[in-house]
Every structure is written in C-alpha cells, then in structure tokens.
Protein 1
Amino acid sequence: MASSILFFLFLSFFILKTSSQSCTSQKLTLPKTNTLYSNCIDLPYLTSFLHYTHNPSNSSLSIAFIASPPSPSGWVSWGLNPTGTGMVGTQAIAAYTQHGQITINTLDIQSYKVLVPGKLSYDVWDLSAEQSNGVIRIFATLKVKEVGGEVNQVWQVGPSVTNGRLDIHGFQPGNLNSKGILKLSGGQNFSSVGTGVDSKTRNRNIHGILNAVSWGVLFPLGVIIARYMRTFPSADPAWFYLHVGCQLSAYAIGVAGWATGLKLGSNSVGITYSLHRNIGIALFALATLQIFALFLRPKKDHKYRYFWNIYHHSIGYTIIILGLINIFKGFDILNPEKKWKTTYIGVIAALGVIAVLLEVITWIVVLKRKANKSTKTVDGYNNNGQ
C-alpha cells in the first residue's frame, strides 16, 4: 500500500514537472489587468518561455520571460535587437538573485565581453521580476520598433554576477542559438534562427568535416601506407606515390578547413576557443614543414638522410596526435549529434586495428628476412657448407 502511494506521488510529481515545461500550462497574467497574455512560446533553447501581448494602438509589447539560471547565483535575460539578429546591439533586461533579493537591470549590449547596466534605446515601463523554485520571471512593457510586424529577440542565461556585473555566459550551442524572430501577430508566430541551419552553423559544420577528413583520416592513412607498404619490395615505388598523394590531399583539405576556421573566428567577435585555435595553427605550420620535406628529401645513401628521417617521422606523428586531439576538441565545441562522433571514432578504431595487424605482419616479414640472412656466410655458403 505504501509503495503504491509513493508510486502515485512520484507519478504526480513527474506529470507536474513535465507539464511545467510548456508555456500553455503556466497561465501567466498581465500584472496590472490580471488578464492572460495573448500569446506564449516555448523557446527552443535554454528551457525558456515567453508570454506576450502586443498592442498595435501604442506600439507596446508586454512580456513575461521565464528561465532558470544555471546556478542559484546566476542570471537570466531577454531583449530585443533593433539593429541585427545577434547579441551585439541587443537592448536587454536581466534579473538575478543576491542575498535573497531579486535585482533587475537593463543592458545596452555593445560587446560580447562586457555586460554592464545601461539605458535602453527604447522606452520600458512596468519593469519587475520575481524568483521561486529556481525559476526567474521578468515582466516588462516595451515601446517596440517593429519592421513588418516582426522584432528580433535574444535571450540568455549566465552562471554568476560579480559586483553587479553579469559574468560571461557559456558558449554551448544552446547559448549561441538563443535568438530568433518574434512575430507580433500571434498564432504560429515564432521562427527561430537556430531551428534551421544558418550560414554560420553551416560554415562550422564544413570546418569540422574538412578537418576531420584531413588531419583525422587522410594523414593517418598516409602514414600507414608509408610505414607498412614499403616493407614489400613489390610495392615500390607505388607506396611512395600513394603516400605523397594521400598527404598532399590531406594538406590541401586541411588548409581549406584551417581557412574556414579563421573566417569563423573573425566573424565571432568575443568568442574564442584558444586551445582549439592554437592547435589548429600549430597543425598548419607543421604540415607546411612536411610539404617542404618532400622537396628537401635526400637520396637513400646521402649522409643527411638519417637526420631527414628523424625530422620527417617526428613531425608526421606529431601531426597525427595533435590532429586527433583537436578534432575531439572540435566535437566538444560543435556538439553535433552523437552519431557523428561515434562514426568518427569507428573510423579511427578501424584504422588502428589495421595498423596493429600490419605491424604484426611487418615484424614477421622482417624477422624472417633477418633469420634467412643470418644462415649465410660472407662468402655465400650456409651453415651446411652448401
């Protein structure tokens, strides 16, 4: 009996918890008139909701924004961007809790790096906020500057506040995609910029694919070809041309991926992935040195060939290690569907298995050759005098 009661209590809690994740179940009302907002939206990122009523007669927009900060000392914000679709230029309203008191600020966001209070470019009144059960609600009425019945909205959550200044929010996909076009007419009124694949997201995907193919597949494959095929005399010189072709293709694709990365960095002011960027620069420099090694390659019997081999091999293996590290760093940044990371891990695992098998075969061949060679004397007779 007790277990049944606990089960139904848990089920009731689950149903209430699930229903609270939909704006239609929240039934928020305008603070002054106590009437329901005309429209509500389940925002597609950061578990956020927007209730709003548009009054065309005075171009006002009354809103209630609901979100949970990532920590008890965190902040939430919502705003309109009259000049663009991103964060810079957004006229935002932010709220946070400190010492048990709710604080609300307005922010004129002119930079990704500095989030300080500032006067908005449009009028705002009836501004208030409340907090309960880890959820913050912001209420406001704004004088909107609409174009074609649409406005650009941006929302965000952040981890903490220091001396009244909002600390920088995270740069996960949810944070980066929390923006959209709000249609004031209601109904099917919201088309999120993040729901489709915009040009920036497409370029990020292209950057990831190019680098995964070059540094993460073709370069290791070229090393496998050079290390194991040359063991067999019948593969000479085919192995060399395959190796060179594979590495040149990897370099060309890698440079294209590196260039798209530079372009993404220049278009993302204030967003910096320092380690990922620095490893990418190092990969480009080392791979360029490897290309020069092709033109500086001495003959097999040259006295400097030993040192060239050390230089060529050490840089080659360094490129593979750094390439794999940076690809997984890229996966953490892009945060794609799990299947893509799983697929790449499968490809790398397959190359690893092939390398291990070829390593065993190569050692068997080399040891057999040494054994056969040791049975012969200097003058050509074997141990049996034949």
Protein 2
Amino acid sequence: MKSQIKRTFSNFFFEYETPRQVLVRNKRVAVVCRIIQMGVLAYIIGWVFMYEKGYQIVDIAISSIFTKMKGVSFTNISEKERIWDAADYVFPEQGDSSFVVMTNYIATVGQKQDKCPELPDGKNKCTSDAHCDEGKYKRMGNGHMTGRCINDTSTCEIYSWCPVEDDRKIPDPPVLLTAENYTLFIKNSITFRQFNVVRSNLVESVNQSYINTCLYHPKTDPLCPIFRLGDIVERSGFSFSEIARVGGAIGVLIDWDCNLDLSIRHCKPKYEFYGLYGTGKNEDKEEKPSLGYNFRYAKYYVENGVEKRTLMKVFGVRIDIIVHGRAGKFDIIPTLTAIGSGVGIFGVATVVCDMLLLYLVSKRDFYKNMKFKHTEIGEEVKREMGEDSEEGKIV
C-alpha cells in the first residue's frame, strides 16, 4: 500500500501528460477546418481589432453645452407692427442645451379676473343652471363655475381670466415663418477624465474669422458650429412650414468618436439631426391626436389699478442637444484579453471537425480507433496489484 501511494505521488510530480494528436488525411474535413479557422481569424482581425478596436481601453465623455440664437422677425397683425428678437422668441433664457424657439402663437390680450361665459367649443355645454355646479371646476373648463348657465352661448358662467382664450384656430401660415432663417450657435466642450483630454467643437481649424462667415453643411462645412434653424428641421425629416405651425421637437446629436492612438487633432465632432416629435399621420392615415408642441406663458401689467395680462399660447420648435462622447487608447490588458478570446474561438474548428470524423464520415469507426486508445489491465498487472495488497495485509 505504501509503495502504491509513493508511486502515485511520484507520477504526479515527475510525469508530464500531453494530448495525443492524430494526423487525418481527409480533404473535405481539412477544407472545412481551414474555412472555419479563416473565418475566426477574419472575425478577430476585422471585427474585434479593426472595427471594435478591442485593443483599446475606453472612456466616456463628460460634456457641457452653451447655445445662442440669433435672428429677427417682423410682424404686422391688425396694423400693429412689431419686431421679434431672441429675447422674445427663445424659452427659457439662452444658454441651455434644451430650449424652444417660438414660430407661431395665439395671443389673448387684456385678460383680467372676472366672470364670463365658457368658450362655446362644445366641451362645456349647458341647458340649465343645474348643469353648472357652483364652485366646481370641470376638467375641460377654464375656471370655477358660478352656477349660472348663459343662454347666449349655452355654456356655464365661470370665474376666471376673462375673456377666455380661444385657441380653436391656429394661425396658418405661422406668424413667425421667417424663423427658418434664425441661426443657432453651439459651443460644446468635453472631457475624457481617464486620458486627461479636453476638447471643444471649436477645433483647430475653426477660428473667429471662419465662424463669422460659415454656416453648417455636412459636406462643405461639417465643423461649422452655426446652424440655420430651417436646415436643422429639414435634415431631421420634418417640413419646416408644418412644424412651425403646430410645433415639434428636434434632437441634435453631437457625436465624438476619438481614437487617441492618433493625433488629438483627429478628435472631431460629427453632427446628426433627428425628429423626436412633430406632425404627421398614424398608420391608418388619420391625423394624430395632440399634434405638435405648445405651452402658455403670460405677461402681466396693471391698467387703471386693475391687474391684467396678455396670455400667449406658444407653438415652437423644441431643440434638445445631446452629446455622445467615446474615446479609446491602446492598453495591454484589453489586447491580451482579445487575443485570448480569439485563441479560444479557434477551438470551434477542432470540435466541428471531430464531429464530422467521429459521426458523419463513412470511416468513422476507423477514426474512432485512431483517436481513442483503449487499454485493459493485464494478468501481470493484476498480479502485481494483488501482491501489493497482500503486503499491506502482512504489514
């Protein structure tokens, strides 16, 4: 028993095992093996290393956005002339990465808190005072009901800002259709903390003289940070005249995909435009509900000691600027990981070819005998094992 244990430990520490290899001369199986290996090699080189850059460590950017709108519009409504500039048509204040440019509006001038009939739009009908519960508010209403039904309009009398806004008819064409000629200046800065890299969309070739004259175009001026509003809308897939009438939302994507193994001058932004929400029809060719984008704001003033306001229902283009930044740089750890994964995938060729040889080809039994070596314990070995066991008993 002692000698058996000694032999086992000796074999474990002082013997080396290696797989048995069988050279098979079979053209079909060999071709299949080489095709699989070439496919794996193309995947590793083409996809993992060249396209995905699996040899790089990656960092995601932290970014900031500054914006500025410029442009002037002129309107003449009911013989009232007015000039509109950025302070009038940009909401909220300039500088945000998400803002609205007003392109159309409905103004209700001279509202004051008083009693007046509801809007006769068919949503708040009444035939008697019983339909107008005093002190209550209807979801589709504009104020608290006084308990009276006004016969002239067949609507309830309410306590509200009077006269009530009538937004049933949206101006067409849009009041500020010239907004398509407004320009948007975008200043974007990004930081890749892991690589201590800071970049701006005002790259080396973008100087002050260039900014003063350029206008973004994807082919002729792809780095110009000044964009025409009409071009932004059109490139997002919308019609400016339609989206200006009822409003909508546009996404401006600034994409940074930087390979820091090259010169930092090659790290430049790309601009893309997407229609996030706008106008149109559904699959049944019916007009979608709640089209466009709008909101209300009021300008308050005092006239003859009475507080009044001008209520504006604003339709506009909402701009959302989104930054996506990714940078990669060579690192030995992801490189070794990618190589190791590729070497492991090469084993697929061996598994597939073994399946063909052992189960599908006509000489599969011959190949099985060549691949696997079957051994049996002989009489002499049995005798030695028996003697060892007897020795153990005597001891």
